[in-house]
């Protein structure tokens, strides 16, 4: 056994799979013992040769291999979780499972053409009140890379997953992504939380249609999902980043309070007069400060601000006061 592999529960190991060029450092991929059919993985890690080698070494340390993998259950479509799933399927013939809502995002990414996508995003930035230099650099905010793997199995909320000898139930927890799913190990009690509940950090909650229009409420979904997992008969969290921790309900409450503070801060901004989404985002609190965020980080921050503004609009706490550029004011 190596330092990168830890026994977290009976028949459950975490494997540190590097997340290159990212301050998170690694994704915790969980290997579940599943009878004679080979291990089941929860998440896969980033699609990179170094990441694959780390996963192979971790599986070897517990007496198995990538070629033995029975299935990969992906908590959500983000590439540090879903990225290696296709490569693992090639090497093992396993099935890849993902919630249907995230499968829609995968299809969108696979079929999107970069030129039209960039043009649409630039128009959206202009509506959001972004300065000319931000609009000009919009292409840098759109991720590039290999196309994500199409899932073989669509995960359904509340379903028992195909893990021989284990009782693993899917818990749909939308917010961080439309189809984000946690997995409850009912036989031993742990909750594999993906990015839904993390220690010390909060996952980005963004909007997937656009930053200003639409009727979806991803932050509302996320807050409801936090309450949902708080009611489960579990206390031990096995997250995808940092380290496992105790007290799922307490940590979920802390994260919910963090978002309530952000909502109040936006309302306080709007009390001084109407503002665009860009103006709101650049005045919000970010871990590095707005001025130090690179183009991609500002894209994420704008999406996060958008989800909060959308929630305030959906719940009637703010209203649309202008359409070109789009501005909001207190209701």
From TrEMBL:
Matching Gene3D superfamilies: Ribonuclease Z/Hydroxyacylglutathione hydrolase-like, Winged helix-like DNA-binding domain superfamily/Winged helix DNA-binding domain
InterPro entries, per database record: Metallo-B-lactamas (IPR001279), RibonucZ/Hydroxyglut_hydro (IPR036866), Sec-metab_biosynth-thioest (IPR050662), WH-like_DNA-bd_sf (IPR036388)
Secretion signal span: none
Pfam families: Lactamase_B
Alphabetized SMART domains for the sequence: Lactamase_B
Domain called Metallo-beta-lactamase: residue spans: 26-241
Protein name (database record): MBL fold metallo-hydrolase
Organism: Catenulispora subtropica
